């Protein structure tokens, strides 16, 4: 989930290339004002004038896509016949879609008479529906996070196509092949005929796409990121949600540490539940974390194939007291629903993908002195070294700070001494692979003797030990 690729070409754009005011659209003079109804948006048509409306209505009957929220039907007739179409490409993951919500809101406000079609993976249809911004979803198919080779579009020529996917010829050309009357995209030397703003590497993902639209004269607010609260009831109202998974190992904090945090919060009287993603081994990882934290099996919330269905996940996050998560989809869901969160970052800086900087959200990151916002590989297989620098104590403290900020009080038993005492009580329940490697001098022998004495130690399945800060939730960690 959650990392927008820049097509195969990487970051592009030449300073000053195409950045003039000549290609901006006067949307009001074009006729697509806030009150425009069906058939509005003349500014998106060519200079020959408006299309024949009867022909447009006939063309709309050939549209392909799936109804948002109905993932059972691969193809259905287009809805809203007679309306011009704005096609948005964002064929990535959950977090990627949610960071595009401010841009989608801007398009919806600016083009109320258009049918907004989102080209994205079919599994995101419920997410698109939850935003209340998308009319239908056009399924895309691509391995991993590659740009789709083509789009199964058989409807009329889109009045407008918007590239919210990346910055390079693959995604540009994919949309150009549909012949839209207008294409909004960042400038790239590989597609010099597309005039747009210059790409910036060091820019938050929400701001990036709002800036693109603003360059073309569409007002967009990157802080307008909320989605409607789900109607469904939470399966665990008031719980703290721990999501230990991520789609790449580089952004996956060790399960032993998630377990240590969950166990400490449980000791303090908080209800804690654990969720799983759809990736291989995610359910096993979630169950391991819950067991090592001393939580009952019922505290693990998963779906039939391991991944919790989006409607239940959204209801759970919306009703949670706090979400503890790495840099992955549920972190962005918490942001979109206004739920307090503690988000752990490693290979990529929070200033590019993090939550808003408010007391409701804590982003933890140890850049290690590097000025780069992308010091690691976000899609690497092993936990990033910066992620491993985050300790269990930090996460517990950040969680308590968030909870207390929401309540407007100070936790009476907050503090390292009390945390250490609680950790001592549950010692041996949640162990970290760091017990086997990378332990500070003078502690390895002590921990080894404890393990020998107890003969009990749970290990996260399929994980190798090591890394800075890889320690058990013991007096040493929490001092």
From TrEMBL:
InterPro entries: Glyco_trans_9, LPS_LOS_Heptosyltrfase. The keyword Glycosyltransferase applies. This is Glycosyltransferase family 9 protein. Residues 1-48, 359-382, 406-479 are annotated as: Disordered. It holds the Pfam family Glyco_transf_9. Its EC number is 2.4.-.-. It comes from the Bacteria. Coiled coil: none annotated. The keyword Transferase applies. Residues 10-19, 34-43 have a biased composition (Gly residues). One of its GO terms (molecular function) is glycosyltransferase activity. Gene3D superfamilies: Glycogen Phosphorylase B. CDD domains: GT9_LPS_heptosyltransferase. Residues 443-460 have a biased composition (Basic and acidic residues). Keywords: Glycosyltransferase, Transferase.
